Every structure is written in structure tokens, then in C-alpha cells.
Amino acid sequence: MCSASVVVFIVDGVNFALGPLLVCFGLSLLTFLVACFYLCILPLVTTWPWSLGCMGAYLFLQVGLHYILCISTDPGRLTRGHPLSESDEGFDDQSRTDLPVCQYCDVAKPPRTHHCHSCGTCVLDMDHHCVWMHNCIGHFNYRYYWRFLLFTWLACAFVAAASHHSIQAMADGDSEPSYFKACVRLPYVLCLCIGLVVFGLWLWHVYTVLAGVTTLEAVILYRNKQKSKPLTWATMQHNVHRTIGPMWTTVLPPFTNPFPWTTNRPRIWSRGLVERNSVV
Asked: What is known of its domains (predicted)?
């Protein structure tokens, strides 16, 4: 085994081992911020506290639900016996003969499928392996990931703004104990830092959605010094609708979304789909 393979093996092993710990940390951090907001920050707000409380509940609910769905949803793993890898229901006859076979798990790879070494399987429309989700981000959970990023930076901006107001209110008096002040100031710092990072990551995924490429494809295009297809307004609309769905459904909680792309139904892969999904 070459040195590069050893490094990849070690990194993938560390990512897989850290996954559960980071998921627990993420859920604990969300719980901490929610508790600080309602127990310490909101009581110091004198302007429209009920409205801010409802808005906070909406944002926290969206963040929590999309985070759980990212973790629990199968991104589109292909294994032996999967309808997209072996069954005639998954491919038309001509597409089956053109599909490459994965050298690691020995299954037919539809277009835009990549092998994840951390998970040990091929994933449809694989974007990347997210250690914070302990899961790959792929065909069936990418929309949840994109919306999770959106609502996370919105929630961070909301909490930071409310915390800033509460910090100013605390400056007018010294009656609050030190731990109470810490529970107001710490969320302000955390949300500023997390919000800026997540906002930058979300902007990147806005670009990939509009361009109709995954993160892996964007990296491959950059390394090969290739350009993606020219974008038009119609192309960008198609890419957004295919990946995220109608944008107005983003404001709905995920369990109320009645549209068919919320179900884990295998997609029929054909030569036409290969051509539509080509990135170069």
C-alpha cells in the first residue's frame, strides 16, 4: 500500500470514528443555544418578546429537523441487490452496458456516483462526506443539507442580534449574576463565529446548485482546468428545481412538504439523464 493510500485510509478512519462524537456535540450545542436564548437572552428583550420567541422557535425547529434528516436519511448508497445496481428496474438496457463498475465495492455506478471510503459504499450524486453529520451528502439528503445551512446561519444571525440587544440591556445594571451574563455573551460570540463560517459554506452550495454540479465535480473540474457548461436563467431554474425543489417550499417544515422528491424512490437512470447531468 502506497503512502498516499495509507494517509487516505487513516483520514477516513478518523472521520468515521469522530462522526458520532461530533453529532452529539452538534446536538448538545444546539440545545445549549436554545436554552440560553429562552432562559437568559429573551427575558432581557423588551420589544416584541413574544414575536421573537416564535421566530426563534421556528428557526430552531428548522435547524433541528433538517440536521436530524441529514443524519438519518440514506443519501443514496448502492449495494449489491440495490435496484439501481443490479435490477432491470433501475436501468434501461443500453445504459446498463455503458455503466462503469466500482473497483472497491463492485457495483455498477450510475452517472455522478462516487465511492465514499469513509462509508465503504458508492453514493448517488455524492457531494461530500460530512463528518458533522456522520453521513454522506448525496442524492436523497442534499436538499436537507442545503436548507440546514440556510437556517443555521439565519438562526445564528437572529440569536447574535438578540444577544447584542441583551448585552446592551445588561450594561445598564449589574443585578445579573456572572453565570447569567456568560449565558448571554457566549451565544453572541458562538453565533457570530458559526454563522460566518456556515454562511460562507452556504454561499458555496448556492453556487454549486445554480451551476448544477456537486462539490466533488467542482473540485474535479478545477483540477482538470475545465469549465462547466454556460449558465442561463432557464438552466439555473432547472438546476434549483431538480436539486432543492420549488424555493417557496423551503419555508415549510420538511415533514409538511408534499412533493415527490421528499421520498426515497430510486430514480430511473437512462442515457437522457446522463446527458442532462453532464457537467462538462
From this structure: The DHHC domain is required for palmitoyltransferase activity.
pLDDT digits (tens, 9 = 90+) for 172-226: 666 778 889 899 999 999 999 999 999 999 999 999 999 989 999 888 888 887 7
Q: Is 130 a catalytic residue?
A: yes
- Cα 48–49–52 angle (5° rounding)? 90
What strands lie across the sheet with 77-78, from one edge to the other? Answer: 77-78, 121-123, 114-116
Q: What are the start-end ranges of the E strands in 5-143? A: 77-78, 114-116, 121-123, 128-130, 135-137
Q: How far is CA 75 from the centre of its chain?
A: 11
123 part of a folded domain: yes
pLDDT beyond 90 at 34: yes
Separation CA 110–CA 248 (nearest Å): 30
User: Do 165 and 45 meet the contact criterion of CB atoms below 8 Å apart?
Assistant: yes
Let me know: does 91 contact 137? Beta carbons within 8 Å: no
Catalytic residue, chosen from 36, 40, 116, 130, is 130
Whether 8 is covered by a domain: the verdict is: no
Q: 279 φ, ψ to 5°?
A: -105, -5
Residue type, 24: C
In a domain, 213, yes or no: yes
The reply to whether 235 falls in a domain is yes
